[in-house]
Design goal:
The complex is a heterodimer of chains A (332) and B (265).
Chain A lengths: L1 E15 L4 H10 L3 E15 L3 E5 L6 H8 L7 E6 L8 H5 L2 E5 L11 H11 L4 H15 L14 H13 L5 E5 L7 H16 L3 E5 L3 H7 L2 E6 L2 E7 H8 L2 E7 L6 H7 L4 E4 L5 E7 L5 H12 L3 E5 L3 H9 L6
Parallel strand pairs in A: 3-7, 3-8, 5-6, 6-7
Antiparallel strand pairs in A: 1-2, 1-4, 8-9, 10-12, 10-13, 11-12
Chain B lengths: L4 H20 L2 H28 L8 H16 L1 H4 L6 H6 L3 H5 L5 H6 L6 H20 L6 H24 L10 H13 L9 H10 L7 H7 L10 H23 L6
The chains are: A alpha/beta (332), B mainly alpha (265).
């Protein structure tokens, strides 16, 4: 049975319909006009217990709005949401015990209090027994290095420290379902790595995770399933491996030749490949379709005829696939 | 699982206490704010005293009765800064989406917001206001037997103030913007109008301040009861007003939360 179920979920907002500039503002003051804007458009989503789902899309695609609908912050305009059988909007308090939420752009720490005080307040709010609280704090310290800034006031933390503390806040009550909206935004590489390893561990321990991120490394390292949102609707929903298999249909061989690469001659000699210049003058890149030739065939063919000094293989990464999906270059 | 009153009280109390400990760790902030409150009440005392060097009565009220009124108002209107000041952050919380986290926690949102900070000016305002009230009480010859009634009236006034601040600030769920205009309007009106006995105003203003925006029940009516100017039936007014306004504040705040659409879609 799914831990989370959304059916025909939609959210519309009313926005002022006015022209720009002072005149537009003045006219709107006396003649108020609004238009509806659909942020989320009839989404169906099911997440099973223990799944780690990446929820991605371009800016304004409706990712954050979906998270707010799923967490009960917003009331759907249409459709239903059930999280562990409950409506998160009308059964807000009961639902809150089972979910953890992190919005990367905002903190839930009490701004004027030490991190430790914020965590203790949440401990009481979630009724976490003292022994469990201590165990979790020890674990967060071990995995997130929380101890070094526990006595510091929230407003004095660096972004990386703040994010680690916020993650501890979201997980202090061991929620079954965790929503992370851009958890690595603005962080440096070492902190990102630390957070990703922590999240992977969380998933391995059985926590269900919904992650939105623009950083595709977050997605590949933490999640097994990807849901791609575009203009409020789901464009793709499936395993990341299947996304790659479905849309990554080309591979490229990078050949380092003895002399400068003559692309015109190569195109004439090997018209079955698409040729491009590499980074060095002697590098030529041959792209081939994996449905027409196997890698072994291509390598055998090119090495026998060109005798390159060196070669390597590459394939488009998931970021490229998603970029092309957004741009409408790939069939959804 | 609905709202658990005991759990809510625990959450409220712990949050308030944590903030109080935090603010007293900054002695400069503490003393500046506390001194501001003290200064404000010295000004009020000075105003009433100078006024009565020129007149014998205001709206039929003598010097000591006026001190009771100004002192009562200072305690009733100033004390919420110590336990409900965070309610002034509704505008900010709505504008920047800060409500989001509060909604996803297993506790009512209103006490979470109300304890977001403490207004230390209350530390100065409340004791000085109480001192003025007691001085006026003694001078006006109000008997000690009225102490229980006074405590009840202070409690009702505190609830009325908290409810009015909550209602006025909740307007920012709909009136988007970081400035709590309705809250400021309420405080300004109270500071300007309620420092005087209602009889100095025309009937329309008296009706407005008693029944439409019932600020009178948080200062004027209680003092009128205590100094025997109002019949005993008026004693029902403050508790009823407090109960009605508290219910209205909860209802309006909840309606605001329902219409909350966060920030950044």
């Amino acid at each position: 049975m799914p831990i989370l179920e959304a059916r025909s979920l939609s959210k519309r907002f009313r926005r002022p319909d006015k022209k720009s500039g002072f005149n537009g503002a003045l006219k709107h003051l006396v003649q108020r006009k609004y238009k509806n804007f659909t942020a989320v458009d009839s989404i169906d989503l099911e997440i099973d217990a223990g799944e780690s789902v990446a929820y991605v899309g371009p800016n304004g695609a409706g990712k954050s709005t979906t998270v707010k609908l799923l967490t009960g912050i917003l009331k759907p305009s249409e459709g239903t949401v059930r999280v562990m059988g409950r409506d998160p909007h009308t059964e807000r308090i009961a639902n809150a015990h089972d979910i953890g939420v992190l919005f990367g752009q905002r903190t839930q720490l009490w701004w004027d209090l030490p991190v430790e005080e914020s965590l203790k307040l949440l401990k009481h709010m979630y009724r976490v027994p003292e022994a469990e609280y201590r165990l979790r704090i020890e674990r967060f310290d071990e995995l997130l290095g929380l101890g070094e800034f526990m006595p510091a006031l929230a407003r004095t933390l660096s972004l990386g420290q703040r994010m680690r503390a916020d993650l501890a806040c979201a997980l202090i009550h061991a929620p079954k379902m965790v929503y992370l909206d851009e958890p690595t935004i603005g962080l440096d590489i070492s902190v990102k790595d630390r957070l990703r390893a922590f999240l992977r561990q969380l998933v391995d321990d059985g926590t269900t995770l919904l992650l939105t991120s623009h950083d595709l490394a977050d997605i590949e390292e933490v999640c097994d399933r990807i849901v791609i949102l575009d203009e409020g609707s789901i464009a793709y929903d499936g395993p990341i491996s299947e996304l790659k298999a479905r849309y990554i249909t080309t591979k490229a061989v990078h050949l380092i030749l003895d002399g400068p690469a003559d692309l015109d001659a190569l195109r004439e000699k090997f018209p079955e490949y698409e040729w491009a210049a590499g980074q060095a003058a002697s590098e030529a890149v041959a792209t081939y379709e994996t449905v027409r030739s196997t890698t072994a065939e291509v390598l055998g063919h090119l090495t026998a005829r060109l005798a390159p000094r060196d070669l390597s293989l590459s394939e488009p990464d998931i970021e490229d696939v998603i970029r092309r999906l957004y741009a409408g270059e790939l069939a959804k | 699982m609905g709202v658990d009153a005991r759990h809510t009280a625990t959450v409220y109390g712990r949050s308030l206490w944590a903030h109080f400990r935090s603010v007293v760790e900054y002695p400069a902030d503490f003393w500046v704010m506390a001194t501001t409150g003290i200064f404000w009440q010295i000004m009020s005392f000075g105003f009433v005293t100078i006024l009565f060097q020129n007149v014998n009565a205001v709206g039929g009220w003598g010097y000591h009765e006026m001190l009771m009124l100004v002192g009562f108002l200072a305690v009733a209107a100033g004390s919420p800064a110590l336990y409900w000041d965070g309610i002034w952050s509704i505008a900010d919380q709505v504008a920047d989406g800060g409500m989001d986290y509060r909604i996803t926690r297993p506790a009512p949102v209103m006490p979470q917001i109300a304890t977001l900070h403490i207004g230390l000016q209350g530390v100065g305002e409340v004791p000085l206001g109480a001192a003025m009230f007691v001085y006026g009480w003694i001078g006006a010859g109000v008997g000690l037997g009225q102490i229980p009634v006074a405590l009840l009236l202070f409690a009702c006034a505190a609830v009325i103030q908290v409810a009015m601040y909550t209602i006025a600030n909740s307007a920012n769920f709909w009136v988007k913007g970081r400035v709590p205009v309705f809250g400021f309007f309420l405080v300004e009106m109270q500071n300007e109008a309620m420092r005087f006995p209602l009889p100095v105003f025309p009937m329309a203003v008296r009706v407005l301040l008693t029944f439409a925006i019932p600020l009178a029940f948080a200062s004027f009516v209680p003092v009128e009861i205590l100094n025997g100017r109002a019949s005993e039936w008026w004693l029902l007014g403050p508790p009823l007003t407090a109960a009605l306004l508290a219910a209205l504040a909860v209802w309006i705040f909840r309606a605001g939360l329902r219409s909350y659409d966060s920030a950044g879609h």
